[in-house]
Amino acid sequence: MAPHGIRQAPRKVGKLCDTTSNHQTTLTKYIVTFTEMGLGALMAMTVMSYAPYTIDRDVIARLTTDTLLLRVPLVLFGVPRYLYQVHRGEGGTPTLLILRDRVLQTTAAIYLAVSTVAIYVC
Fold first, then answer.
1. What is the mean pLDDT of each run of 10 residues along the chain (122 residues)?
2. In the chain, how many domains are there?
3. Which of 44, 64, 78, 85 could staple 107 via S-S, CB 3.0–4.6 A?
């Protein structure tokens, strides 16, 4: 998941630029939409780099399983869901966000179960 500061950057920049002029002048030069697009691109890169990791020969040899690819759909669902929650303003720390969102909790639980079975059983 994205670090706490990165995922809150768009909202913070928007609030700081709108509500006060006591902050650094560089904050007024940030474009909130551009910051959000950067966050979206970062999340896309995370997902795109995760899939090849699961089929890497070294990873398969080290974990002695080739079933890690089963986790990719969960990541493809979980990362955009997390980004959606952040964009909706369901904020706080990443931990609080996950503790409040039943869908993310379920996705994380399934991910852990699939990972455990893939690594220790298969």
1. 52 52 65 81 90 92 90 92 82 81 95 93 82
2. 1
3. 78
